[in-house]
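queue> pop job 88
queue> type: inverse folding (structure -> sequence)
queue> payload:
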């Protein structure tokens, strides 16, 4: 994403497991800059920040990668059941992988 102007306002979500905005990627997105998030169709993203110019910062559920991406590439998951399912899957994946990372 382009460098941010001082006057640009960010809307921040709290950093917790119960994030209210969960998105699903609807088209492939190739990162153009180092702070952008590369996404594939079906990736599930937890939003952490929003800008007025329709860019989001988020964390990809399956690998915790963080970056900026345009809002045109994602669709909000409105169904509470599906949102909880994705967050449970993330928790299980992190629990499974944590011993692997601790041994490195």
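queue> result:
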């Amino acid at each position: 994403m382009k460098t941010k102007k001082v006057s640009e306002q960010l809307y921040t979500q709290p950093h917790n497991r119960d994030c209210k905005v969960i998105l699903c990627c609807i088209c492939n997105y190739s990162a153009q800059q180092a702070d952008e998030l590369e996404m594939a169709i079906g990736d599930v993203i937890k939003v952490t920040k929003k800008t007025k110019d329709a860019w989001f910062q988020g964390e990809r559920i399956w690998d915790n990668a963080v970056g900026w991406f345009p809002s045109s590439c994602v669709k909000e998951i409105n169904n509470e059941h599906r949102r909880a399912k994705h967050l449970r899957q993330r928790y299980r994946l992190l629990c499974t992988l944590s011993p692997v990372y601790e041994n490195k």
